[in-house]
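Risk register update: the risk that structure generation would not scale has been downgraded. Supporting records follow, first protein first.
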Amino acid sequence: MFRRKFMGIFGAAALAMTGAMPLKAEAGQDIVDTAVSAGSFNTLVAAVQAADLVGTLKGEGPFTVFAPTDEAFAALPEGTVETLLKPENKDQLVAILTYHVVPAKVMSGDIAGKKAQVMTVQGDRLEVNARNGVKVEGAEVIQADIVASNGVIHVVDKVLLPE
């Protein structure tokens, strides 16, 4: 149902890395378990739980997740995260979170030096530019290719917001 053909997302040579130790998935861990064990996605994990998307992201996949760090969520206007986590805002939270998910496993080498528009689970397209660094809707990919049992995580420095 979520599977659609599209071009891949990143050029491996264009990836920017943080000075922190690179994240790695433990053998057999799915996307959710990988995010939990990383320790830098606490807000994302809380949002996925509040949106009842844990079961989906622990599912067969494959998925590509653009995972905003806790710092990316903290950069949102004050009170945004708290408001989104309220039960009455669940639909908006689901829309934002599924905008970060592509219904296929896309590794970094797939579009080196290219631009692409990719369909998200939410239904909108993301603009990906791997010509000079790697940006997804203006967010920089700061670590790519964290392989999980049901897909891959690419860490981004901003929360992606659908229009």
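Supporting record for the second protein:
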Amino acid sequence: MARVLPPLTALPGFDAAARHLSFTKAAAELNLTHGAISRAIRNIEERLGIKLFERGTRSVSLTPAGAAYAAEIGAALDRMSAATIVATAPRSAGVLNISTSDAFAGRWLVPRFHRFHRAHRDIDVRISTSGHLADFVRDGIDIAIRYGGGEYEGVVSEFLSEVEVFPVCSPELLKGDHPLKQPSDLKYHTLIHDGFPIDWALWLQRAGVTDVNPSKGVSFESGSHASEAAVHGEGVLLGRSALISDDLASGKLVRPFHHKMLATSKYYIVYLPGALRQRKVRAFRDWLVEEMAADRKREEE
């Protein structure tokens, strides 16, 4: 069946005008004239037989039909851009661009990364850390590790790991005048906060502790910095399993209590559709899965 298509060369102009609600700004973005944008949109309207914009003296707005069409065309152009990136990626197959959080990079990825590099010396790696979701197309990201619900528009999302949350501290805090033996002993110690959704107030409530002030202590924006503070005996942290597994294995951190909570969000491996056709992306994804499985096996032993 033949496809029913609009004038394809006019679509970028329509998309830009719909996003900016301005023919002038659309023209500036695409390095075209205001007249070229206006003609492109008129061409589409004539072909489709519908009105896409309401044109005012100094402004434009989308009609209901135009708004619905703009949403679909914008998504289609994004998919075409992503497909083009994947198709042309072999030209730069030696560089793998990874996006993740600062905490996950510092506490989990970097300490293990020598094993990936040793097995794939022909792949150069660029790691980008940010508290915001990376735009795969705009930022040139090949693969990401994200913590969340796993539903991300326009990309493939694979489950990597659940996250358990429990108190951890330096072994030194199990000694002294007020050793940590039971949750109520936390009132004698500094609580370390890192902005994680499961906070001390929630954990203490679930543990049945009522005589500890959940807001006291020291706060860090970075989960990595919070973990370092716990390692150095500065207080007790609500540790996230993936971020403190190495410190637990080495004995730098210990679990003073057995009570734990399971976070509703999880870690996911995220990439563009078709990205696994690139050897560098597939190799890193497979390595992530193997490393996380090894961590789980070690924890169960």
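The chain has three domains: 8-88, 93-161+265-300, 164-262. On this basis the risk owner (M.S.) recommends closing the item.
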